Amino acid sequence: MSEKKPVLSISMLVSNNRRDTIEKCMESLVPLRKSVPSELIIVDTGCTDGSVEIAEKYADKVVRFPWCNDFSAARNAGLRECSGEWFLYLDDDEWFEDVTELTEFFRSEERKRYDALWYLQRNYDNFEGTTWVDTYAGRAAKLTPETRFCGKIHEVLEPLPKMKMIKKTKAYVHHYGYVYKSEEDRQKHMLRNFTLLEEAVREHPEDIRICCQLVQEYRAAERWEDAERLCETTLKHTKYAVTNSFVQFLLVTLPKIYREKEAYAQALAELERIEREETRLHHQTKLVLFYEKAVVFGKTKREQELQQACMAYLEEYEKDDGENAEGVPTMDFAEYISPHLRQRVVRFGIRSMLRSGEYTFAERFFEAADWNEGNELPEMVAALFLVYSETCERSESGSTLLRQNLPRVLRNKDLETNVFAELWRLWSERAASWAPGKREEFLADLESLGLRSGNFSYFHLLFTEEKKITTPRDLADYYEKSDRKYDAEVSALLFWNAELFPRVSEMTSFEDYAEGVSLLLAEKDEAEVEELWQRLPEVSSYYPEAKMNFWKYAVMAAAGRRMLLEAERTENTEAAKTEIRARLETYIAAVKQYYGNIAEPQTPDAESGILPDEVRFARAMEDVLSTEEDRATWGERIKQIAKEYPPMLPVLRALLKEEKERREQNTQNPQRQQDAQNTRNAQNMQNAQNGESSVNSAQKELLALAAQLKAIVRKQLSEGKTKEANAILAELAVMLPDDEEVKELLKGVRNK
Predict the structure, then answer these.
(1) Is 89 helix (H, G, I), strand (E, B) or coil?
(2) If you average pLDDT over residues 607-616, what whole number do you get?
(3) Contacts of residue 675, Cβ cutoff 8 Å, sequence gap at least 6
(4) Which residues of 50-61 are buried (b: 16+ CB within 10 A; e: fewer)?
(5) Nearest 5°: CA angle at 623, between 617 and 628?
(6) pLDDT-based confidence at 38, cuts 50/70/90?
(7) Taking each helix axis from N to C terminus, what angle separates 454-462 and 472-481, rounded to the nearest 10 degrees?
(8) Could you check whether the bond before residue 604 is cis, i.e. omega within 30 degrees of 0?
């Protein structure tokens, strides 16, 4: 601590059961304290679990305070030791995410223009931290001789500043104080609060602030009748005028209680009475009023009125809030003037539009949206495009939605993928139904934005009416504007274009080219793949000598696709003879052509563990086919290959099926039939001696293979390889049609 008067004094109470949060709290203050002359005062309220010892490592002073069921008394004990220009207090169960904004404020001259500073308290609803409510916390103020805490519980720092003297920041603390490990803990916490507050109300029934706090506790405990009774009694007997912030808090809390009791008609009647009769409502009170009306209209499915209430809230939000309020916003009023709740109102309005199909306020709602706030931004991006699609033919305002909002949306780089996905969906699913000229207008809207992301140049070039790049200038334009995320798609699109494809291949990496070939093949049916295969010799002339390996890869990939399609067709028909063996041999030859010598079977087996999957499969199959006459082991070797290369299951099953048919034909020869029967009889006798039949043995082999394939599927699902897992599961469903585990795995894949 500096010998000069510190700029900032920080004080904190330390209690038991905070060992899991107190160090996070202390560490979050370190960057602030390094940059701003400050002091840290710790108040030990009787801690016995070692939390104080953790805090002492960071503190400048520790004050011992015997706990007396009075939070203000404890806070004031720490306050008396503070000497800074400003005072900041926080709890030992909360910690700052980022103190940059606070640091800048306290280091600048700006701190001299304000009397108080607010930051946000992010109150989580669960220990996972997935949902929360942000409220402003008035925890920092200029330190004066009059500064003090009031209230045994839910203490506040007085004197309260005027709204225009408060600096509102976006800094926030994580706070899990309203999440409990058990219902017993929750009840214990509420009992403590009730005891202190009810005692305080009995001692000081005229203290409207304490009455307001007890009303809040009753609501939290769902003691609606107690909350309603205390609210009405306090309003009836208070000495304060309606302009008092606590009086206005109780005015709008009464309809909240009705709404929480699901007495919606009563809640709406009281809200409308307040709006009609009370002419001196504060800015924050009006915000509560309009928000509560929106909630009630939503509960009663009155969509148009809900949207009007949201609009009234947004219009009021924009007004000056510094002139008409007596003191600081009271209790949870601070939540209603927060950006977090404003964004919630925007979402209310947008969701209501989608439910009702009424888009009168669409332009205003999207204009008010904050595209950096909240977890629902992808949902709001989807809504923007849907509303654009619904309104672009109805009104001029519809056609302006994208021009006005897309640049704002895309300032959030995390939303670029969502925007492009919605562009794709809009064009592919909805644009076909637009009136003539609207699609061109849509593309013109995008072009007018001058967007330079690869997403948009790709969209603009590829999804015109012709859906293709037509000139070298188009191609050059693509590479000028694009961040080249979509080179693979461009490669696939131009595969047949003798003029443009060589230009693409010069600028495309092998990885993008391979992805493009895969995309090209995946989109084609069997006849189209066959046409491509027949034209591959012609396409080879497009490739410069340095890129011939690219062409060889395309041949290998096409041969593999032909083989799989033939295998799938064979499995779904009763054809007795197939080309599967010939296509397998063609594929093996293509693998050898692409990979060269390493694909030859004589390559040492020691290297096989690091060989590409295509090479390992080709070598294994070539070896198996060369020993096909060994009937005793041939089938077993095929099964082993199936375990190692699940994507090739259709091919291997087709081979086994063909072999079975050939074997059945051979048995028509009497001598061969007798030899085969003798072999089967000998095998059956051997099985009988081992205590199991050949049928049982086959079943066991099948189940063992299935178990191994299930393990492969589970591993692939854990790695996000849904497509590969689905291919294996399709085979397992044929092998084991009644297997419940296979059905459950298939269900899980389809739900992803």
Answers:
(1) strand
(2) 71
(3) none
(4) ebbebbeebbee
(5) 120
(6) very high
(7) 160
(8) no
pLDDT at 364: 93
Query: Per mean pLDDT, which range of 78-92, 253-267, 295-309, 411-425 is the poorest?
Result: 411-425
- Residue 161 DSSP label: P
Inter-residue contact 422 to 442 (CB < 8 Å): no
Residue 513, pLDDT score: 83
CA 412 – CA 516 distance, rounded (Å):
29
Contact 728, 646 (CB under 8 A): yes
Q: Which two tokens stand for residue 714?
A: 């589970």
Strand pairing of 38-44 and 8-14? parallel
The full length of the chain comes to: 752
Strand 156-158 and strand 116-124: the pairing is unpaired
Place of tokens 């013109």: 444
The pTM of this model reads 0.59
Place of tokens 């131009």: 494
Separation between Cα atoms, residue 174 and residue 54, nearest integer Å:
19
* Residue 168 backbone dihedrals phi, psi, to 5 degrees: -95, 130
135: enclosing H helix or E strand: strand 132-142
pLDDT at 184 over 70: yes
Give dist(CA 627, CA 621) in Å, integer.
10
Can you spell out the DSSP letters for 523-559?
T--HHHHHHHHHHHHHHGGGS-GGGHHHHHHHHHHHH
Spatial separation of the C-alpha atoms in residues 304 and 412, rounded to whole Å: 31
- Give the model's confidence band at 538: pLDDT under 50 very low, under 70 low, under 90 confident, else very high: confident
Please tell me the predicted confidence (pLDDT) of residue 233: 93
For residues 147 and 96, is the Cβ–Cβ distance under 8 A? no
Q: What is the DSSP string of 549-616?
A: HHHHHHHHHHHHHHHHHHHHHHHTS--SS-SHHHHHHHHHHHHHHHHGGGGSTTS-GGGGGGS-HHHH
Q: Rounded to the nearest 10 degrees, how much is the dihedral formed by the CA atoms of 510, 516, 522, 525?
A: -110
- What is the per-residue DSSP string for 95-124? EES--HHHHHHHHSGGGGG-SEEEEEEEEE
Per the prediction, the chain carries an average pLDDT of 81
Lowest mean pLDDT among 313-327, 471-485, 565-579: 565-579
Tokens, residue 63 = 């004050």
DSSP annotation of 648: G
Closest to 605 in 3D by CA, of 594, 616, 590, 618: 616
- Assign 3-state DSSP to the chain and report helix, strand, coil percentages, each to 5: 65, 10, 30
